[in-house]
């Protein structure tokens, strides 16, 4: 049997909650510690800390307003 590392239990209330991603709109709620989040708690991301929440928001912001780019290649037969 393999030796697996002992994992630490994660307490959900130790993390941060943030609004779910919406393609072309800004978040309705700011990221906040688990017990201070005021948005809808049904469908939302949970992250470990404020740093991760802020980095995720920056990543989401970079995707807003971008058009989908699709490249289609057709093999030409001889």
SSE order and pairing:
Blueprint: E1 16-17, E2 32-33, E3 46-47, H1 50-63
Antiparallel strand pairs: 1-2, 1-3
Report on the architecture of this protein.
It is flat, with a radius of gyration of 19 Å. It has one helix and three strands. The protein has about 80 residues and is α+β, with helices and mostly antiparallel strands. The longest helix has 14 residues, at about 50-65.
Task: Describe, in short, the structure shown.
With about 80 residues, this protein is α+β, with helices and mostly antiparallel strands. The chain has one helix and three strands.
- How many DSSP H or I helices? 1
The largest sheet has its strands arranged as 2-1-3
Shape call:
flat
What are the secondary-structure elements, in order, as H or E?
EEEH
Radius of gyration, in Å, reads 19 Å
Q: How helix-rich are the residues, as a percent range?
A: 10-25%
Please state the structural category.
alpha+beta
What about the largest sheet? 3 strands, antiparallel
Proportion of strand residues = 5-15%
**What integer is the average pLDDT?**
88
Q: How many strand elements?
A: 3
Question: What low-confidence regions span 5 or more consecutive residues with pLDDT below 50?
Answer: none
Distance between the ends: 56 Å
Fill in the keyword field for this structure.
78 residues; alpha+beta; three-stranded antiparallel sheet; 18% helix
């Amino acid at each position: 049997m393999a030796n697996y590392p002992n994992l630490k239990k994660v307490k959900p209330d130790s993390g941060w909650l943030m609004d779910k991603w919406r393609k072309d709109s800004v978040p309705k709620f700011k990221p906040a510690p688990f017990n201070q989040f005021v948005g809808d708690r049904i469908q939302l991301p949970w992250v470990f800390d404020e740093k991760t929440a802020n980095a995720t928001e920056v990543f989401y912001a970079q995707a807003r307003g971008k058009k989908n780019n699709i490249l289609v290649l057709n093999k030409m037969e001889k």
